[in-house]
Amino acid sequence: MIITLTANPSHDRTVALAGALQRGAVQRAASVISQAGGKGVNISRASVSAGVPTLAVLPAPKDDPFVHELLAAGIDCRPVAQPGNLRVNITISEPDGTTTKLNSPGPEMTDDTRAGITETLQLRAGEGDWVVLAGSLPPGAPVGWYADLVTALAHTGARVAVDTSDAPLQALVERLDQRLEGGAPHLMKPNGHELASFTGHDADSLEDDPVAAARAARDLVDRGVETVLVTLGGRGAVLVTGDGAWHAASPPTHVVSTVGAGDSSLFGYLLAAIESRPPADRLALAVAYGSAAAGLPGTTIPEPRHVDTTQVTVTDLDLSEGD
Hints:
- The protein is of the alpha/beta class.
- The chain is built from ten helices and 14 strands.
- A ten-stranded mixed sheet has the order 5-4-1-8-9-10-11-12-13-14, sandwiched between helices. Strands 3-2-6-7 form a four-stranded mixed sheet.
- It is globular and about 50 Å long.
- 49% of the residues are buried.
């Protein structure tokens, strides 16, 4: 089972334009797609499509339309009551694949809501293969909450993956430096820009150079993280563990929307890990899922029929030069 936490869920609305976005102009949308979303929710959607049991934990009233939509999609969820309306995120997609996102901050998270979510995760984590802490944190949540949850879940036996950015990511990295027992997640999934934000590297250089990205990711492994999966957009992804490093190139893809591609990559890795595949195969499935998502509209999450690992090439990386 994959248990997901979406700390700041959103109603995702994707507006597909027939032409390039023109600031200040009136343009007609070719289509509008609305879906209950969030990084953890996206992973739970992929789980359902692949036949993997999942449980989505999130802050929301139990009778919220967001929750009803998830249940109708076959996603078992545990909403924890929170006052306020869920946020609305808007994605503008252009024909060439350029994506512009307008993300709302979300409602204020109360101490009671945060305590309820923590308790729910601790109670259910032992039933899962993985617990995924994903996405931004809402207003009111301490920036170190994900780092706190990693430690709180350490005794449950579940493996913990974290996919976040900005201040919550920085707080997690700072916690790694304290070398506390149970303070490191089993898996972190930054993209190139997120990795650069705390390693001091140039973001574009990491995105363009898989070896440089892998060397930067190895810093997290040295700090106690078991596995680091770095997504590099059109350059594919790298995987780094204590046993080695690998790069997988993206297959040729007509990019329609990049929304949800990183979430899909993370799910591909988790699926392969649950199936006990070797690291190179885990990376291949991660990139295949991410590429499939990029070729689908809006926040559409790929199903297994969309995914083809035969088009993904994985190579071993030698990180010894320059050590």
